[in-house]
Fold each of these.
Amino acid sequence: MSLRSTLLAIASLLVCLPAGATVVEALELEQLSQASELVVRGTALESSAEWVAGRRQIRTVTRVQVSDRLKGDPQAREVEVHTPGGTVGDITQKVSGSPQLEPGDEVVLFLKRRPGPRRLFQVVGMGQGRFSVVREAGRELVVREPARLSLLYPDGSVRPSARFGPVPLRQFVERVQKANAGKP
Amino acid sequence: MTKALALLLPLLVAAQAHAYSRSYVPTASGDGPCLFWRVRRIPFTLNQMGSASAGRSSLDAARASFQVWNEPSCSDLEFVEEPLTDSIEVGFDPEARDNTNLVVWREVSCDEVVPDGHPCLSEGGCNNLFGCWEQSPGTIAVTTTTFSTKTGELFDADIELNGARFVFSTVDLPLCNGTPDTVPPDCVATDIENTLVHEIGHVVGLDHVSDPEATMFLSAQFGETEKRSLEADDIQGLCDIYPVGRPTATCVNDSVAVQGRGCGCGSGPGTGLLFTPLLVLLLAGRRRGRA
């Protein structure tokens, strides 16, 4: 590692952490899978944020191109994902703990349909239901960085969300499908 | 150069070990400006219904939670209570003058009260229309903050607490037996002050830290009440950002000049002084590369 890259790495220790405050019930991968109507692998295409509910709240809708369906509607080639918060003009609104999707992100999403006429989905378990797909030495891996979440466990303890993975994509898919074995 | 780096490393590590962290504007690259309030008197208001499980004592517990952040004498940031309100609306209206920083309990899930087909079910915002809990059911509380994308200046911060699922309490003893959604409120369940003092830290502009003793640590035990008070790192963060009689430490250029230590992100006192030689070393490396 060069001196410059070493220094940059040290400097990164001093940067801020993203905002977040939420304590949310911990969901294991199998629980996430069972609580989802649709589990897809895909790529975020574009996001649009807008004011809703009398202009007090911002929501973001992100189009996700589906490359693989791990659970749910086998016809889904593209889904629209609703996340609370976002940026409209010079104003940003953040709802602590909600997942973020940026165009180009390769992800596995655990989704639940929102009621209403428009076919919109939301991520299950806030940031817990969003995983990244990364490539390393020619292998596809699934990881989830520790979101700014505290997780509430059944014994009542609250602990920081830990990093998930990296897990080979194939193994990840098998766990999801096994959790839903015998279910539609 | 190597010797200089060797001397610098332990200092950097030591500074980080007992540090507070600031929240920042989320961007695709993850390094937007830090959040801050331009004013030192921040109004807040409580929804008059308080918590159904804890009753009227929930309002006193909420007031006490804000007061905790008013106490350190090294900062003149002050939360000022406005009259109780019947407002149930969180968020921010850029054209309104009556934006308020609201604390409100949601006692029913939106799934139970919103009529089928209502537009808010797909668009969002049912919480403001029906006073219900709209987020993931297993979430205890969420803070909605609104701020300037360019500067990080905070405009509004609202806290919603999930009374639809969780039992909130204000008593000191005894500890409850059970889980946070099943216990009676006359024992320490989800302690309101423990929850709110931490949430208000986010309103101030602080983020979670790695020190388990700090109020802003990202962990707690069921029935915990230790986070009703501030610890040294929390106070350090508050006072570094909003020092009494001195300008607010922002991440924008004018404030850097005033404070002389960058944005103060993730820093305790003096970390900026350590950060400066780091930049000097980086710049020296760049110059040498060009030569």
Amino acid sequence: MAEVNLPGPGLWTTSVGSFPKPDYLIAARGRFARKEIDREELTELEKQATREWIEFQDSIGTDLVVDGEMYRGDMVAYFAEELPGLEIGGLVRSYGNRYYRKPIATGPIGREQPITVDWWRYAQSLTDAPVKGMLTGPYTICDWSFNEHYASRRDFVLDLAKVIRDEALDLERAGARYIQIDEPAASTRMDELDLVSEAMAIVTEPLTAHTITHICYGDFHNAYPKMLEIPVDQIDLEFANSEYSLLDEFSDDPFTKHIGLGISDVHTHELEPVEDMVEGVRRALKHIPPERIFVDPDCGLKTRTVDEAKEKLSNIKKAVDVVRAEL
Amino acid sequence: MPITTTVVGSYPKPPNEGDTFRVRKTLHALEKGTVSVDDLHQAQDELARQVISEQEEAGIDLVTDGHVRWDDILTPFARNIAGFEIGGLLRWFDNNVYYRRPVCVGDLDWRGPSSTDAFRFATSVASKDVKAVIPGPVTFARLSVDEHYGDHDAFVRAIARVLAQEAFELEAAGARYIQIDEPALLNAPEDLALAREALGMVTSELTSAEVTLGTYFADAKRLGTEIFHLPVHTIALDLVSGPENRELIKSFPGDLKLQAGIVDARNTKLEDTGELQATIEELAGNVGPERLRVAPSAGLEFLPREKARAKLHRLGEAARKVGA
């Protein structure tokens, strides 16, 4: 377990990972796809957008900063594009009118070079606050891909775990003290929670950084307290969109790790009032001490507009300041 | 004896590689207010036409409109039932696909048909029989939030009453085949008696339509052979995600038809036609070729368009070879 070395009494503010891309970047990604601009030109705009998001987080006093993933499309496809053994497949729908290119495992998965380290270095160079390293977990990459190669899901997941471990070690060598390995799919199948843990152990065992996993959309009432077996220091969960119902579970089975407390629903345009968020944090404090709580939105904010995302983040900070003053 | 082929329901909405994704573009434009709902309906009609002709070209005997107008099997109905609101996103079983959960906030009441216009359009462009698909009452209730009835059985019965009217209207619109999807029943053996009663209610007004109970994503082991005694003519079983269903099929009763899901609707790896043929022959031996219909394991929307199409072609080819 890595110590959290951040200023203040706890209730540290952070984000789950993605932020919306500004209009100029969305347009540039379209032009890049149509080969109207080159990679360098796109990268410059991705850097500009990253800089703007870091400046915004610094301006509201965020404790643990993210780079906002301006250079990523889908959280699985981004890694699949870089990893030998995975190919980008055709479009499939995830919900509503949203589609993604679902990867296909066509051979043994490997890694030729670091994928996220240069971006992490760039983001960290822009701020004094620590920047999270952001990886997609092996179970989720497997679960959100087709498999034409591996004989079993376990074989597929464990090969991915070794690749993600190597990436995490490279982030740590570059200086990352907080590394998040997202497993939103972890709550999909209760009979595979052990596989989630087995794979996560491969990733986190050699790390000294504070490790985090984000899990969402799940059958939490069945996954808890078993999910506490996942070998990470912090689990980040969505609370706002279920009206904090998960907190009730903590009365019977105490939450034993650091928690990422999602207090703003990312799938609604509606901006939650600060008072509601304050109430949510106060409720969480009845179960978990402040030095084990990070406060953030429920999930990545990339589906909101830039303004909506900024308003949600600002309100989260305001709510945290209110509760911190009561400590 | 030819083996008949069908699909479970949904079909990929994205275009074949290189073509314009008209439905997605039109939905975006509709959000911005630059096109009308009529434009969306035209785009959806065009897609339904393509999807039906792709199924027919693959040799599918009993087609659907691919649910091209739906995001999932619940919300198109819930939107049209008084007492339901549409809630937050939730995972659709164990897939990386999300649906909006209906929330029941008052007495449920049928406000008119939800699916008959789409069914009529599909029959007008299809040269084969079209199957209508509706959600089953147990699955509908289990995947919704009940803030009103406060009693699961009462909630299921209220949904069944509304769905009975939908089924009646579908038959009146010419539906000879109606599939009632109950994937959630597979993990709810405690609802079996309730399902029997509720399915009886849904089908009570039907006079001649052949009714299929649709199940997928898992095996029916927890229901056991009781699943064969529900008030339907055909049972659809997923033999890919539920390989143990093969064991159950050995006790298949003589007065029921089997819709066997034998092509993986959730993975891109293409099945070998010879192996499919062997599977069909074995199943025909179990239940009799005249009582067997073969299909993908679930709706095909989990696959990219080209893969769905390629899989249907292999299914059609294997079924023809067995029948030859």
